[in-house]
Amino acid sequence: MTHLKVSIVQMNIDWHSAKSNCHRIEGLLSEQNLETDLIVLPEMFNTGYSMQPQKIAESMDGDTINWMQKMAKKYSAVICGSLAISEGNQYYNRLVWIDSDGEKHVYDKRHLFSLAGERRVYSSGTNQGIWNYKGWKICTRICYDLRFPVWCRNTQDYDLIIFVANWPQPRNNAWRTLLKARAMENMSYCIGVNRIGTDFNGLSYLGLSGIHDALGERMTPKMIEKEEIATVELDKVKLNSLRNRLGFLKDRDRFAIHETVH
User: Fold this and answer.
1) Could you tell me which residue, 137 or 262, shows the higher pLDDT?
2) Closest CA to 146 of 90, 186, 202, 203
3) Among 43, 58, 118, 227, which one carries the catalytic annotation?
4) Residue pair 210/218 in contact by the 8 Å Cβ criterion
5) Active-site entry in 22, 80, 109, 139
6) Of the residues 139, 143, 152, 190, which is catalytic?
7) Which of 4, 128, 216, 233 could form a disulfide with 180 if both were Cys (CB 3.0 to 4.6 A apart)?
8) How confident is the model at residue 1, as a pLDDT?
9) pTM, two decimal places
10) What are phi and psi of 202, to 5 degrees?
11) Predicted confidence (pLDDT) per residue in 221-230, tens digit
């Protein structure tokens, strides 16, 4: 499949209210005559970015996962976003990727945001979070991972990297700059999906979600402070032609990442 249609959902998030947020997303999706292959939601889309997992975490068979499976089936598309998951005696900020058949893949956030205390309450993941879908190799990451280019480095020839986030307004310059950088240095399409509004802690979010091509050019209109869905068709033939012509990935450094997480 040489073309992949991707829809990014920028939304406000009601604090600790999974049912309300799922209903909000359903409303946004229903407003579109949506034909897409992939729906991308923000980080902790069902609750907001909370350091109280004991109050919000669900199991992998919980209500939000069941809702995601229903949405994937309804739109015949993959749906992905992160939420707090309880597994064993640990909590994870987990990106869940569900296809239209209900099959699940997961990526647990590796870089936990110490400034907010995330490391004290969530466990860090170690898996790569890279999957094949309709002939595309897709890498998934969560928010703070964006600041760590080695962890995002395109050593596995992925075609698209996705960042889901709750990235606050005071650090918007980093959000915009790093998304473009990850696209350019990895010669990959790059998606960043952020929330809007103000959370329970008084942090404001402007959104600024978007899709960039492998040269860092923005493919979506500016998405600022409003709930909306943007859909873009990605072109793998164009991507491969650009990679072959410029050859930047051929000169990348070779290295191994140790899986020890501190």
Assistant:
1) 137
2) 186
3) 43
4) yes
5) 109
6) 143
7) 216
8) 86
9) 0.97
10) 85, 10
11) 999 999 999 9
